């Protein structure tokens, strides 16, 4: 990962990653070698501040490819992309904080993967602190605002290709009360 400051307090970062794997098995008494490649890159822009606004957005596209030695003419290729937005607004005089974060996954539709699979997860919370020392906090949060939390796993290995979808915990609301009692003196040294 490489990053730098583009404006005061605003950072831009870049990353790259990849993987290469090989699976060897026997199919109908023929040795099969399956080579898989996956390469991705990402860009992010963010600002972390004690003032009123913090935000971050990361976008990471990925290219996936697989080829089998049994049938070299068939190559499975597809793109996927993940984006991670985050924003928090702070209203310090009112001791009120609002944040929103998400994860957006898109997967290319291909002849192998006929269904278009896009998952748009958006979570949010509003919290307020109480007392002079902010010892108490009340927070209302919602997970998966659009009720779309679907798990997707694409698997390309050996002599099979699969796409599995599975249910995750979907939309739920949570009311949290927190008591921060950190005024117990200095922590002991280890």
Radius of gyration: 23 Å
Shape category = elongated
Average pLDDT, rounded to a whole number, is: 87
Order of helices and strands: EEEEEEEEEEE
Strand order of the largest sheet: 1-2-3-4-5-6-7-8-11
Helix segment count? 0
Number of strands: 11
Question: How does the helix and strand content classify structurally?
Answer: mainly beta
**Approximate strand percentage:** over 45%
Quick structural summary:
This protein is mainly β and 190 residues long. It contains no helices and 11 strands.
Q: Could you explain the architecture of this structure?
A:
Helices cover 0% and strands 70% of the residues. The mean pLDDT is 87. The protein is built from no helices and eleven strands. The strands form two sheets. A nine-stranded antiparallel β-sheet has the order 1-2-3-4-5-6-7-8-11, with no helix packed on it. The chain has one domain. The chain is mostly beta strands. A hairpin with a 5-residue loop joins strand 3 and strand 4.
Which properties best describe this structure?
single chain, 190 residues, mainly beta, nine-stranded antiparallel β-sheet, two-stranded antiparallel sheet, 0% helix, 70% strand, elongated
What's the topology here?
Layout: E1 2-7, E2 10-27, E3 30-47, E4 53-68, E5 75-91, E6 96-107, E7 117-130, E8 136-143, E9 150-157, E10 160-167, E11 172-179
Antiparallel strand pairs: 1-2, 2-3, 3-4, 4-5, 5-6, 6-7, 7-8, 8-11, 9-10
